[in-house]
Design a protein that fits this description.
By secondary structure, this protein is α/β, with parallel strands linked by helices. The chain is built from 27 helices and 21 strands. The structure holds thiamine diphosphate and magnesium ion (MG).
Length: 670
């Protein structure tokens, strides 16, 4: 029987060999945390390599994601479908072993982070989701949801501010099944952290309300196992296990130094490390008896089968709940969803009520909330402004885990990363609100939502200078354009309640991609549409107002500027200028339509085009072309009533008419 140290050395060897072969990567962390990983994987982690999607598996998050070779090694060794060839192709184009893996559940990767600190915050979301699902679905004698969330994290994760936001909430929320291992190796890229990181980390986490296990020798398997057992006994507080480790453990000349953090050790040092570790095997060779000791497939199958037995008993005792649990964890929407949306949008269309779109959003949420218990809303301390609390929803507290509304406090970044963790865990559709301008604080979590592929919904209100008196610090200018530039992100900016229904429905359907809903503070008039126009909203851009015959000019607008374009079209029509108005609530969805649709909305022959949006103009040039005109914000706003600001910055029907006039004069069309 191989010793624990030998089992851990398999991680060390695979990691240093893969990094050496790629001549790129991070050997230090995997070699330093190998002993901890060995204990966790072989003695504690509840998982089944044969079914990485098992709903009640433990979740493992590698927050210090640069140590990805550690994760690839343990996944490979424990029997996930990740071949040795993939390890040999570490960091190569087309391999499944990227520098920083993000999410690939079929090989057991829940999430890891490139951007330090965010994995830890994702894990807080996962642990919260577990607690909420357990409260909702477990019944006496039937604990079908009962798993832990484990995190590896480093100095970098703790230096990052998002760790404060998320860990503060984890303490307040009482997430007792969140267990984190701090790789306290005293080293980050620039060297010994004593020059830039001298927090008393244990005190800091105790102040958050965590259980902290100090000074655990991260190279002593028995000590690590003892700490884990203590952590598991504590059910009301998250646990931080502070593990003293040596970065690059086993590399005789480089261990304990920043040199081994992020560069191949070099063939000489690799050879010396083999000697000092007592690992005589060739590169990428793991002896059979060590492989056999690591192989968790049989144990994993047994663990899942035990759960399946209790699941069967649950199904028999609570058939309806069991069906609902299956639906929720599979991420399927209820059968009546599409009908409800169609009816809701049609009713909003005929009601024709003037509302701020943040209020429209509230109305949609109130209508859908009852039939979509998976909606898990929240706000970063702007609930009354974001209108994100579904009517009748209780607030989640540590003692009321049935609550379905989250007060994230003033923690935009933490909120975004926690939402991503909730989405990755499954069972919920997280949405969270703040002002559009503060999406900058959360930005990296929106970007990561797109990369990882989470269906998080970001409800961003106060979406332009139209918010008024709060002034330039609160008035978004560049945010709409820059959020639209995040690949795979869908940004909806509806112009009234009917469009808000369509936008929300699109966001809810999109379970593996994130959505931004940009909503106004100020009231907007309803627009009239016939049934086919209402149906066309889902295409992201459509003809809202048309003229007889071929238009002489086309006005394109989103959100609060649609009403201005419609008013301008009326003025132009009265003067005999045939004008079309295109409402464009979601540019990327419009771009994804076939050419026939796009050309029917924006006929290529018509060059006189004006786009109006109270934001940075950049993205609109592709719709108006070089002969067109964009009315947008090219500088910051100002403090004053929203109506005055609109006029001051040129967002009025008259300004649009003037723009059309000067274009038609130039082309001699009029
Ligand atoms: C947000 C963010 N900033 C910077 C980096 C670049 N980076 C990667 S690892 C690292 C140092 C991390 O130190 P530590 O967590 O102590 O890792 P160790 O060297 O101990 O493995 C830095 C700065 C990053 N990945 N993410
Ligand atoms: Mg470190």
């Amino acid at each position: 029987m191989p010793s624990r140290r030998e089992l851990a050395n398999a991680i060390r060897a695979l990691s240093m060999d893969a990094v050496q072969r790629a001549n790129s990567g991070h050997p230090g962390m995997p070699m330093g945390m190998a002993d901890i990983a060995e204990v966790l994987w072989n003695d504690f982690l509840k998982h089944n390599p044969g079914n990485p999607r098992w709903a009640d598996r433990d979740r493992f998050v590698l927050s210090n994601g640069h140590g990805s070779m550690l994760l690839y090694s343990v996944l490979h060794l424990s029997g996930y479908p990740l071949s040795l060839d993939e390890l040999r192709n570490f960091r190569q184009l087309g391999s499944r072993t990227a520098g920083h893996p993000e999410h690939e559940i079929d090989i057991g990767i829940e999430t890891t982070t490139g951007p330090l600190g965010q994995g830890l915050a994702n894990a807080v979301g996962m642990a919260l989701a577990e607690k909420l699902l357990a409260a909702e679905f477990n019944r006496p004698g039937h604990d079908i949801v009962d798993h832990h969330t484990w995190v590896f994290l480093g100095d970098g994760c703790l230096m990052e501010g998002v760790s404060h936001e998320a860990c503060s909430l984890a303490g307040t929320w009482g997430l007792g099944k969140l267990i984190c291992f701090y790789d306290d190796n005293g080293i980050s890229i620039d060297g010994e952290v004593s020059g830039w990181f001298t927090d008393d980390t244990p005190k800091r986490f105790e102040a958050y309300g965590w259980q902290v296990l100090r000074n655990v020798d991260g190279h002593d398997a028995a000590a690590v196992a003892r700490a884990i057992r203590r952590a598991k006994r504590e059910r009301s507080k998250p646990t931080l296990i502070c593990c003293k480790t040596v970065i690059g453990y086993g590399a005789p000349n480089k261990q304990g130094k920043e040199e081994c953090h992020g560069a191949a050790l070099g063939s000489e040092e690799v050879a010396l490390a083999r000697k000092s570790l007592g690992w005589p095997h060739e590169a990428f060779v793991v002896p059979d008896e060590i492989r056999a000791a690591w192989d968790s497939r049989a144990a994993g199958r047994r663990a899942e089968n035990r759960w399946r037995k209790s699941w069967k008993a649950y199904q028999a005792a609570h058939p309806e709940l069991a069906l609902e649990f299956e639906r929720r964890t599979a991420g399927r929407l209820p059968a009546g969803f599409e009908d409800q949306v169609a009816k809701g949008a049609a009713a909003a269309q005929s009601a024709g009520q003037a509302l701020a779109t943040r209020q429209s959003s509230q109305a949609v949420l109130n209508a859908l909330g009852g039939s979509l218990p998976e909606l898990l809303g929240g706000s970063a301390d702007l609930t009354g402004s974001n209108n994100t609390r579904i009517k009748g929803t209780a607030v989640y507290t540590r003692s009321d885990p049935a609550g379905r509304y989250l007060h994230y406090g003033v923690r935009e970044f933490g909120m975004g990363a926690i939402m991503n963790g909730i989405a990755l865990h499954g069972g919920f559709i997280p949405f969270g609100g703040t002002f559009l301008v503060f999406s900058d604080y959360a930005r990296s979590s929106l970007r990561m939502a797109s990369i990882i592929g989470t269906g998080s919904i970001f409800v961003l209100t106060h979406d332009s200078i139209g918010l008024g008196e709060d002034g330039p610090t609160h008035q978004p200018v560049e945010q709409l354009a820059s959020l639209r530039m995040i690949p795979r992100m869908e940004v909806w900016r509806p112009c009234d309640t009917a469009e808000t229904w369509v936008a929300w429905a699109a966001a809810i359907r999109r379970r593996t991609r994130p959505t931004v809903l940009a909503l106004t503070r100020q009231a907007l008039p309803p627009q009239s549409r016939d049934a086919s126009q209402l149906d066309a909203v889902r295409r992201g851009g459509y003809v809202l107002v048309d003229c007889a015959g071929t238009p002489q000019c086309i006005l394109i607008a989103s959100g609060s500027e649609v009403a201005i374009a419609v008013e301008a079209a009326g003025l132009l029509a009265r003067r005999g200028v045939a004008t079309r108005v295109v409402s464009m609530p979601c540019t990327s969805v419009f771009d994804a339509q076939d050419a026939k649709w796009r050309d029917s909305v924006l006929p290529p022959a018509i060059g006189c085009r004006v786009a109006v949006e109270a934001g940075a103009p950049d993205g609109w040039w592709r719709y108006v072309g070089s002969r067109g005109c964009v009315i947008g914000m090219t500088d910051f706003g100002a403090s004053g009533p929203g109506k005055d600001l609109f006029r001051h910055f040129g967002f009025s029907a008259e300004a649009v008419v003037n723009a059309v006039d000067s274009m038609l004069k130039k082309t001699g069309d009029n």
